[in-house]
Specification:
This protein has 231 residues and is of the alpha/beta class. It has one domain (3-228): Class I glutamine amidotransferase (GATase) domain (Rossmann fold, 3-Layer(aba) Sandwich). The chain is 26% helix and 23% strand. It has six helices and 13 strands. The chain has a nine-stranded mixed sheet, with helices on both faces. Strand 11 and strand 12 form a beta hairpin.
Length: 231
């Protein structure tokens, strides 16, 4: 069975205690698609939800080794959505690229990719389109896919409908090519050439996997590539 590593995200309980969590839609979709979900746990000795980006200590050699051990045990990595990026996330992405590990970035995961080798920066959306919908079962706006891109190869269409759960948008990055834009011109898909699989999408195919053919194609293609990378 293909093993997909998923870095945990950061939040608080109602009583303000910090937690790391794995989104249920990510878990359920990957499992239903035939994968084993392998949580990748953060390694700094700090509460991630309460620590600001510039307050993190540099990763030690032993912490880096722990990340390498996680990556040794997985066939691919899905970087999920969330509300915060940390130095751990940046280092994990760098190692996925260095080791050519199949990687799918979703929402914040794509925005993390768009800041590879740069300071993390995203920009608030100002649009006539609602990019942060209220329910999980609607495809909200159009996305135009560039012919010749990996994303086009996967879905086989120049135009699809997607869901949308974000307030910020990514900017261009020299290491990635843009594979999709929304109908109002924001970046919705990026990919890195000359890799086994390195794709980011601004929407959430794991949320619409059950009812949207294009979402299934993305997840299933990713898992198929990972299966060929299987240990």
């Amino acid at each position: 069975m293909v093993k997909i590593g998923v870095p945990l995200r950061y939040s608080h309980l109602d009583d303000k205690r910090c937690i790391l969590y794995l989104g249920e839609r990510v878990r359920r979709t990957l499992q239903n698609a035939g994968a084993m979900v392998f949580p990748i746990v953060q390694v700094h000795d700090t509460d991630y939800a309460d620590t600001k980006f510039d307050q993190f200590q540099e990763l030690t050699d032993s912490q880096k080794e722990m990340i390498e051990m996680y990556l040794d045990m997985v066939d691919g990595v899905l970087i999920p959505g969330g509300n915060k990026v940390t130095p751990f996330d940046q280092y994990l992405l760098e190692r996925c690229i260095d080791r050519n590990i199949p990687t799918l970035g979703v929402c914040l995961g794509m925005q993390l990719m768009s800041c590879y080798k740069e300071n993390f920066k995203v920009y608030e959306i100002d649009s006539y389109i609602n990019h942060c919908q209220d329910d999980n079962f609607t495809l909200t706006h159009k996305v135009y896919i560039k012919e010749g891109s990996l994303l086009y190869k996967i879905v086989g269409k120049k135009e699809i409908m997607v869901n949308s759960f974000h307030h910020y948008h990514a900017s261009e990055n020299a290491y990635y090519s843009i594979s999709a834009v929304s109908e109002d011109g924001y970046i919705e898909g990026i990919e890195m050439k000359n890799t086994t699989f390195h794709l980011g999408v601004q929407w959430h195919p794991e949320i619409s996997y059950d009812f949207d053919e294009n979402s299934r194609k993305i997840i299933d293609y990713f898992l198929d590539v990972c299966s060929k990378n299987s240990h």
